[in-house]
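Field log, afternoon session.

UNIT: design team B
ACTIVITY: writing a sequence onto a fixed backbone
BACKBONE:
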């Protein structure tokens, strides 16, 4: 019987976003396969996390494509980006806690592509006069990642309604990023 790799990855993502310390045995059980079968697909936790990283980057890049961050007012583009990324936010939150993904010389180039696109959006907002000039675009990008992750955790824990996710993140980010008179 062939193993559906996408099913295993999505099951692992769902489990690890709820319980980041889940063992490979728990991942296998959740996916309905044996640990040996899981090990044949992913040599260990690091290989599984790297595969989840590729999935997360692909989903975030697809969300950015769908959100069209280069179109219209920058504030509207930020709203579209947050709304589009929301389905992948829990996975993104998990990945951001996996330090091994961001250490050494094996950092996936996909993170740089995501960073560049988001930073360009914030720079565009500054150049158009929508966003504050005293906050570097790279910092606004990092703040967005943090808010996306925090929002995903708050929704998962039931502290925030899923329907409020986009509104809460955008209003907090833009409330601090919007340019004020005299600044």
């Amino acid at each position: 019987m062939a193993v559906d790799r996408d099913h295993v990855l999505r099951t692992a993502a769902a489990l690890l976003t709820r319980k980041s310390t889940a063992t490979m045995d728990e991942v296998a059980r959740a996916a309905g396969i044996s640990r040996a079968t899981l090990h044949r697909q992913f040599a260990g936790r690091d290989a599984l996390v790297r595969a989840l990283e590729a999935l997360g980057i692909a989903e975030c890049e697809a969300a950015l494509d769908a959100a069209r961050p280069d179109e219209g007012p920058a504030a509207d583009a930020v709203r579209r980006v947050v709304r589009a990324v929301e389905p992948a936010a829990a996975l993104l939150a998990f990945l951001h806690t996996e330090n091994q993904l961001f250490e050494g010389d094996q950092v996936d180039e996909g993170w740089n592509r995501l960073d560049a696109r988001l930073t360009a959006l914030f720079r565009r907002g500054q150049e158009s006069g929508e966003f504050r000039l005293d906050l570097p675009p790279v910092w606004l990008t990092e703040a967005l990642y943090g808010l996306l992750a925090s929002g995903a955790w708050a929704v998962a824990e039931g502290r925030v309604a899923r329907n409020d996710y986009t509104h809460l993140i955008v209003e907090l980010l833009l409330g601090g990023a919007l340019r004020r008179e005299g600044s």
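LOG NOTE: The mean pLDDT is 90.
NEXT ACTIVITY: expression trials, pending approval
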